[in-house]
Amino acid sequence: MLFSFDYSTKILTIGPAPAPPQPMSVTLAGSFQSELGCPGDWQPWCDLTDLGFDLEDRVWQGIFSIPAGDWEYKAALNGSWDENYGENATRNGPNIGLSLGDPTDVKFYYSHETHWITDNVNAVIAAVPGNFQSELGCASDWDPGCLRSWLQDPDGDGFHGFSAWLPAGDYEAKVAHNESWDENYGDGGVPNGPNIPFTVPVSCTEVFFTYDPVTHLLDIGTGPGGPQGNLNQAKAHWVAEDILAWNPESLPADGSFALHYSVTGDLGLDETGVTGADGALVLSWDPAGLPAWVTDKFPHLSGYSAFTLDPADLYLIPMVLKGQTAVSASAGDDSPIDATSIQIPGVLDDLFYYDGPLGVDLSGGSTTLRLWAPTAQSATLLLYDGSTPAFAPMPEPMTEDPVTGVWSAAGGPEWVGKYYTYEVTVWAPSTGNIEINEVTDPYSLSLGADSTRSQIVEAIKDQDPQVQQAARTALKKIDPELAAKMGVK
Predict the structure, then answer these.
(1) Residue 377: predicted pLDDT
(2) Which of 220, 232, 355, 379 could bridge to 398 as Cys pair (CB 3.0-4.6 Å)?
């Protein structure tokens, strides 16, 4: 950051420090120069192997046709050896090797901010396109070719990264290889996967982007003094009632770990850690790791650390799962280390396994509708006399079975033929809010013409005679073509 004080106005201005001045030239000096037309090799003054400076990218780059063979090179600045950079961005460092089995058009890159000189054969050329790039000086957002967000590996440790000072706001990003969308990775390292969300809580916060080109995982966080972790990502997995799998940034011997929850969805993250929680449950790190039955069921979690809940807290789990959840790790002095949201399908299957009937059940002379929704805070059955918006809803309360997570409502044969939806109040990670959604029944056998409402029908061959008659009467109202598609008579 640059702090500028105007003594006459007594105004202090704080902003990003200007980029360092660029050299007059950057030359690829190496053993292949004579192959490219220079009088000889290792000539820093031969401008035939100069790189060009891209003003938008602020990166020196150039493409050269290199013959097959084993070559070496460095970056020489200003036409001399006075300032040169080799392997691992080291001044006067070792030569960089380049082995080519065939003649190849090789693109070379040099960043004067990091002094990293590399090429697209030796290194993965990856950038972070996103809706923040214009803040960095790119001409537009979501530009995989703008290298202001270039993920660099100057120290050669295999991890690529960069940092940027960003205004407060909610952002999204992905990783793109080779300055195009042809190869890109989203949340969870998934090829062509969803965007990776992140939040900058305070303007002028330095945000760090770290990329593993092996797993294709991009980590986004702030540096010391800022929020540690990212609640917009869900890197922890709740795999059983009392077991969570997570790999926090570190596992200090005297550290502490917690599961935070908010039924109202108010969890946040600042420099003190997770905020806005209704409560927090203690997690204990298990050095033995995840049990074999867990890794057999979830093989992609092999290598994750295991955390367990106190048995005395397990009665709270059904309530906790109805809201926003996150885990955190803190050092022995309570300073935050990491935090992330939680993926919960595993624990839902473990706690609320159900293989009974769902959807419409016409038996025993009654009409029962069942919906499996263990994370719902409330559920209401909305009945309609027709499938169009002209028909107003008739709400019917639904009751939850806390053991199975199944919500149900029961009525008489007069419900047969009516249209219906479920109104469900639930925490929605996709929006970060408690949402009230009106949805159709995934188990319904019939939908309205525009598919916005389900209809109460069922195969009636073996049903109660009273229900059969009501169903037949209702089916007479159904369009014959629709009835044929449904396979009913």
Answers:
(1) 97
(2) 379
Residues with Cβ within 8 Å of residue 420, at least 6 apart in sequence: 369, 381, 382, 383, 384, 441, 453, 454, 455, 456
* CA atoms of 143 and 178, how far apart (whole Å): 12
* Residue 235 vs residues 14, 230, 231: alpha-carbon distances, Å: 34, 9, 9
- The pLDDT tens digits for 398-419 are 999 999 999 999 999 999 999 9
Max Cα-Cα span within the chain: 100
Residue 428 burial class via C-beta count within 10 angstroms: exposed 0-12, middle 13-18, buried 19 and up: middle
- Where residue 378 falls (left for φ over 0; alpha for ψ -120 to 50; beta otherwise) is beta
Residue ranges and CATH numbers for the domains of the chain are 26-119 (2.60.40.10), 235-350 (2.60.40.1130), 359-486 (2.60.40.10)
456 vs 417: CA distance, rounded Å: 5
* Whether this model's pTM surpasses 0.85: no
Strand partners, 437: 424
Cα 462 to chain centroid distance, Å, stands at: 48
CA distance 147 to 120: 14
| Residues 409/369, Cβ–Cβ less than 8 Å | yes
Q: Rounded to an integer, what distance in angstroms lies between the CA atom of residue 158 and that of residue 91?
A: 20
Q: How many CB atoms within 10 Å of residue 6?
A: 9
- Residue 106 contacts residue 98 (beta carbons within 8 Å): yes
Supply 68's token pair. 């097959």
Residue among 344, 342, 348, 347 nearest 235 (CA): 342
